[in-house]
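Sample 3 of the quickstart, ligand nicotinamide-adenine-dinucleotide:
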Amino acid sequence: MQTAGRNRMQKIAVFGATGSIGASALDVIARHPESLRASVLAAGNKVDALVALCARHRPEHAVIADETKFAQLRDGLRAAGLDTQAHAGDAALDPLAAGDACDTVVAAIVGAAGLASTLAAARAGKRLLLANKESLALAGELVIAAAQASGSEIVPIDSEHNAVFQCLRSRDADAQVRKIILTASGGPFRGRTRQELKNVTPAQAVAHPKWSMGPKISVDSATLMNKGLEVIEAHHLFGVGNARIDVLVHPQSLVHALVEFVDGSTLAQFGLPDMRTALAVGLGWPQRIESGVAGLDLLTQGKLEFEAPDTDAFPCLRLAREALAAGGTAPAVLNAANEIAVSAFLNGELGFLGIPALVEDVLAALPAARADSLAALLATDAHARRIATDKIPTHAHRHV
Ligand code: NAD
Ligand code: MG
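Result:
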């Protein structure tokens, strides 16, 4: 384990390299050629984008999850005159995460598809820059236990959790911490009633007012499921329960989280809504390194506002808290049902209000059970996806 030290080159695997977080990570890495190097780049199925990133960053390994695209990747790398080694398939990630190819893993694959590589990095003692919150919703205990056992240092990349990490200077929210307060922008539909949410479109839902992000997390932000997943994430990362995690809507998205201590002091982290700050924290920690993000001029920002979340219009936050309280397999069911619901919404098969309705229905159909193994959690994830998929038609037209 090493930091972005002056003498030693830190080799970084960026999983989800073609995505929004991947781009931010590569931007920060490229600012530090003397100490940081992207050694592995992995993507889902965008071969051309991956080859272009390889031409720019010259990693030793490139991985495309979609196995049918292996030849295209290999030939594209060769045509670009690169000696980057091509790999394909989900299974290719784990040995690259665990072996000599990297010191640090940026876990920025979207969805439960990121779990295996996140776990591989945690088990191998790598520094883990964890953006993939779904892996914590699905198997948080196992990821944290694996990191604990190996000495893997997890630095949260989700902006709120990164903010908490900065306030605590660790992941240890001990008895001196009274509570953690995660802020939420409120998404594009803040202030609307349920009635006004019935006919919103995918294009409106992904147009986030403050952050530029991938489509899945943008929809999650619009439903407030993102904040629900973040409550679960905070529980695992900082070892605190539902009752010590508050959510506050803050439309300006300049305060990312606050930590209240037992003596009444509250620390907050401020910054422009740009994920490169969180990635620079993860890549440099405990040093501070240049990220390309400007400082905050509070005089020009105007007012900072705070309000309570509306869980009637946005029930996903309540559903996530209930799943966390139920424990066992419930968060995995919530996450799987949500992934199916969000992709059905993006495909036009489900209305916006169908997302919480479908998730609630699947949670009722699959009551929480004990979850003490990865196999049990993966079986639950698959089962919840089947049930959710089967139930899409029953929710499809209820609200339109
Ligand atoms: P995105 O859709 O922009 O990118 C997803 C990346 O994952 C792409 O590179 C894609 O090719 C890759 N991918 C998808 N399936 C894959 C698979 N099976 N194997 C390998 N790669 C695969 O998403 P994003 O917005 O960058 O979000 C990534 C993760 O980070 C999500 O878990 C999200 O919740 C989290 N996150 C994102 C932000 C943000 O600002 N974008 C903030 C906080 C947390
Ligand atoms: Mg966040």
